[in-house]
Write a structure and sequence with these properties.
The complex is a heterodimer of chains A (199) and B (296). Chain A has 199 residues and is α+β, with helices and mostly antiparallel strands. Helices cover 20% and strands 23% of the residues of chain A. In chain A, strands 6-5-4-3-7 form a 5-stranded antiparallel beta sheet. A two-stranded antiparallel ribbon of chain A has the order 1-2. The chains are: A alpha+beta (199), B alpha+beta (296). At the A-B interface, α2 of A face β1, β2 and α5 of B. Chain A: This is Ribosomal protein L19.
Chain lengths: 199, 296
């Protein structure tokens, strides 16, 4: 490739088959003097490459903000950590799928049923209860940390630990638990009066 | 008393006679039917040649004036995840976490030089080896580290321009304020009419054979010209384009985590780049403290 002043380019290109080196013409402009003639083209003196300055990045925010936000929110929603403990995987006595659970709500009647599913999503965690009302299967999702839930009670444990996390097979007539009303009534008679006195 | 003539009245009404008012009418040609002669042989100009500051409604400058542009610059953010926030009354509000990852103003754009006021804003960081030399020179010029993405945000005037290198953090936004959001929605590939346009399809049974999700008729027969009209909705590429959501509330701002919680879902995948700016539907929010931090 050519490199050098364009005014001399045509002159250089006609000297393609030259074998001897050219002498620098004396009539050359003073500004072009630093250029040197070699075989058949002009080479400009090597210039130092300008390095582009790259600025260092600024410090970024933490990569996983959700975890921090969750702990922050749970400090107000679940200050004692009771509900976290109640559904914790690390707690031996936690509520597990298959257990019968009663949820008392701030507004509205309590609802109880068999726990089919625990959806673990931090602040947005929820669980699914199934019961029968007027012989019709009813399922309800509850948000674990919702302020609308006053209390969550474990009514009865499943006799044998369920071997899967989602007990959707319990919707089939063959496996359906049916109404939990009797179990809950028994529980209320046995346990709740003492709780009421304490309150 | 002469009637008050405001520039806005002229801009909004835009009636034909607004053009006449700033220009002197020659008596001789007052009743001429030719539009040019009606203006006294004067060629109509976009901006009045008289001393009146009235901007003609049909001009480009007037259109620019009319355009609703936020006062403050917007920011880029990364869509993180969805979660929920509980109000004191127990109401649950689903929201999206947006994180402002090393958002900095890269370059200002001025009306004099570029024809409009805007700020080029960059997010994240990108290894310099993956950036072209012209762009590296651009970042060098404004003293900013190479960015993963850059985007321009229009602002109303020079008051909205921030200095290059200014860090835009989560406290740029105020809890409770409303924002407009742009993001690229998830691409669904080549989708049929039912998915793309919400058509009903055909019945599953009653003698139906092999046409359950077809688009049905594309138009009339001979009465409609025996052709399919342009713009007929059909199967095709769905999603993967930009979506704008207007007037969404900011539920929470966390300066330390660089996080803004926005009410409701936001288009695009997790990790997608989202643009947020003050909504054009409300006046600019009052920021309690100056947030300006210039790096270096």
């Amino acid at each position: 490739m050519m490199s050098g002043p364009s005014s001399l380019r045509s002159m250089a290109s006609c000297w393609t088959s030259l074998t001897q080196s050219l002498k620098v013409p004396t009539l050359l402009k003073p500004t072009l003097l630093p250029t040197t003639f070699t075989r058949n083209f002009i080479v400009a003196p090597k210039r130092e490459k300008r390095r582009i300055k790259i600025h260092p990045p600024i410090k970024g925010p933490p990569k996983n903000p959700l975890q921090a936000l969750t702990t922050q929110a749970l400090q107000t929603l679940d200050p004692n950590g009771t509900r976290q403990k109640m559904f914790s995987r690390h707690n031996k006595d936690s509520i597990r799928p298959g257990d019968i659970v009663q949820v008392r709500r701030r507004n509205g009647d309590p609802f109880s049923g068999v726990l089919l599913n625990i959806r673990r999503r931090g602040v947005d965690s929820a669980f699914l209860l199934r019961d029968h009302l007027t012989r019709v299967g009813v399922e309800m999702w509850f948000k674990l940390y919702s302020p609308a839930i006053e209390d969550i009670d474990l009514v009865q444990r499943k006799a044998k630990r369920a071997r899967r996390a989602k007990l959707y097979y319990m919707r089939q007539p063959k496996h359906d638990f049916g109404s939990v009303a009797n179990v809950v009534k028994e529980y209320t008679r046995r346990v709740r009066p003492t709780q009421r006195q304490r309150k | 008393m002469p009637p008050k003539i405001s520039i806005w009245r002229h801009l909004k009404i835009g009636s034909f006679f607004d053009f006449i008012s700033p220009i002197k009418i020659n008596n001789a040609s007052q009743f001429s039917s030719s539009s040019r002669a009606a203006f006294g042989g004067v060629k109509m100009k976009r901006v009045s040649s008289s001393t009146s500051p009235t901007l003609l409604a049909a001009s480009k400058a007037a259109a620019l004036e009319r355009r609703r542009v936020p006062q403050r610059v917007g920011t880029l953010a990364v869509k993180k995840e969805m979660t929920a926030v509980y109000l004191p009354n127990g109401q649950r509000i689903p929201c999206t976490i947006l994180q402002l990852d090393r958002v900095q103003v890269v370059a200002p754009k001025t009306k004099k030089e570029h024809g409009y006021w805007a700020c080029q804003v960059g997010l994240g960081w990108k290894a310099p080896k993956n950036i072209t030399k012209p762009m590296l020179g651009h970042y060098e010029k404004f003293g900013v580290a190479p960015k993963k993405t850059i985007k321009e945000f229009r602002v109303k005037d020079e008051n909205g321009i921030l200095a290059p290198g200014t860090i835009i953090n989560a406290d740029h936004f105020v809890e409770g304020q409303y924002v407009d959001i742009w993001a690229t929605c998830k691409g669904k590939g080549f989708a049929g009419g039912m998915k793309r346009h919400g058509w009903a399809g055909q019945p599953a049974s009653h003698g139906n054979s092999l046409t359950h999700r077809a688009m049905g008729s594309a138009g009339q027969s001979q009465g409609g010209g025996s052709r399919v009209y342009p713009g007929k909705r059909m199967a095709g590429r769905m999603g993967g384009h930009s979506k704008t959501i207007q007037h969404r509330q900011v539920l929470k701002v966390d300066q330390e985590l660089g996080v803004v919680l926005i009410n409701g879902p936001i288009p695009g995948p997790k990790g997608g780049i989202v643009s947020i700016q003050d909504t054009i539907h409300r006046p600019s929010p009052v920021v309690p403290e100056p947030h300006i931090v210039v790096s270096m």
